[in-house]
Design a protein that fits this description.
Pfam families: 2OG-FeII_Oxy_2. Fe cation binds at residues 121, 123, 177. This is Alpha-ketoglutarate-dependent dioxygenase AlkB. The protein is α+β, with helices and mostly antiparallel strands and 206 residues long. The chain has one domain: Alpha-ketoglutarate-dependent dioxygenase AlkB-like (Jelly Rolls, Sandwich), CATH 2.60.120. It contains 2 helices and 13 strands, in the order E-E-H-E-E-E-H-E-E-E-E-E-E-E-E. The strands form 3 sheets. Strands 1-2-11-8-13-6-3 form a 7-stranded antiparallel beta sheet, covered by helices on one side. Bound molecules: N-(carboxycarbonyl)-S-(naphthalen-2-ylmethyl)-L-cysteine and fe (iii) ion. N-(carboxycarbonyl)-S-(naphthalen-2-ylmethyl)-L-cysteine (MD3) binds at residues 108, 110, 118, 123, 133, 135, 144, 166, 168, 172-173, 175, 177, 179, 196, 198.
């Protein structure tokens, strides 16, 4: 089932369900090579989300700011390659939502545990705002908060469930968004957690 949240924002409910086993198998070695970590915001607060990346570029935050890098600051190695199962699903999802030539070169991996949340923000470190972002939810459900172009617009809640894919482009690309704290629960695949994969196209960043 396909739902338009607002112009440019398409929810493909269950679109990843037939790919879950491949995604999960490919995720384990990525997390081994580039362990999840809770980074510091530029303001010095530790994020509640644990993150890592794969692909050419990885997103980091520290006291110096938010940015994409080619290497993982914790291992000093290049970020692990993006698994082909990740890449294929992201391309197919974007195409299903009307974005024909999306070729992501970064995948940010977020892990939520009970109580983990993400406050309202815009994603604008990628450089090229004409490219969409594709997000894939795995594991426990969460209430996503979909806002407007200004932080002051009251967000509306959307439940994101295991296997859901969202594509954000066009006017939706710069909307504020966040998630409510994850509720406790147990999922047969991910246990007490939720994973979110976001696929991005990052212009030369360094
Ligand atoms: C709308 N992640 O990684 S996914 C993020 O559930 C992020 O982990 C949330 O926000 C999560 O930046 C929300 C949905 C999402 C992702 C990126 C977007 C919505 C978006 C970029 C622009 C607009
Ligand atoms: Fe975001």
């Amino acid at each position: 089932k396909r739902v338009t949240l607002s112009p440019g924002a398409t929810l493909l409910r269950g679109f990843a369900l037939s790919h879950i086993a491949d995604l999960w198998d490919a995720l384990a070695p990525v997390l081994h090579a580039a362990p999840l970590r809770r980074m510091l915001t530029p303001g010095g607060r530790q994020m509640s989300v644990a993150m890592t990346s794969c692909g050419t570029w990885g997103w980091i935050t520290d006291q110096a700011g938010y940015r994409y890098t080619r290497t993982d600051p914790t291992t000093q190695a290049h970020w692990p390659a993006m698994p082909s199962s990740f890449f294929q699903l992201a391309c197919q999802s974007a195409e299903a939502a009307g974005f024909k030539n999306f070729r992501p070169n970064a995948c940010l991996i977020n892990r939520y545990e009970a109580g983990t949340r993400m406050t309202a923000h815009q994603d604008k470190d990628e450089g090229d705002m004409t490219q969409p972002i594709v997000s894939v939810s795995l594991g426990l459900p969460i209430l996503f908060l979909w806002g407007g172009l200004h932080r002051t617009t009251r967000p509306h809640p959307v439940l994101l469930e295991h296997g859901d894919v969202l594509v954000w482009g066009g006017k939706a690309r710069l909307h504020y968004h966040g998630v409510k704290p994850l509720e406790e629960g147990m999922h047969p695949l991910t246990g007490p957690t939720r994973f979110n994969l976001t696929f991005r196209y990052v212009e030369q960043a360094e």
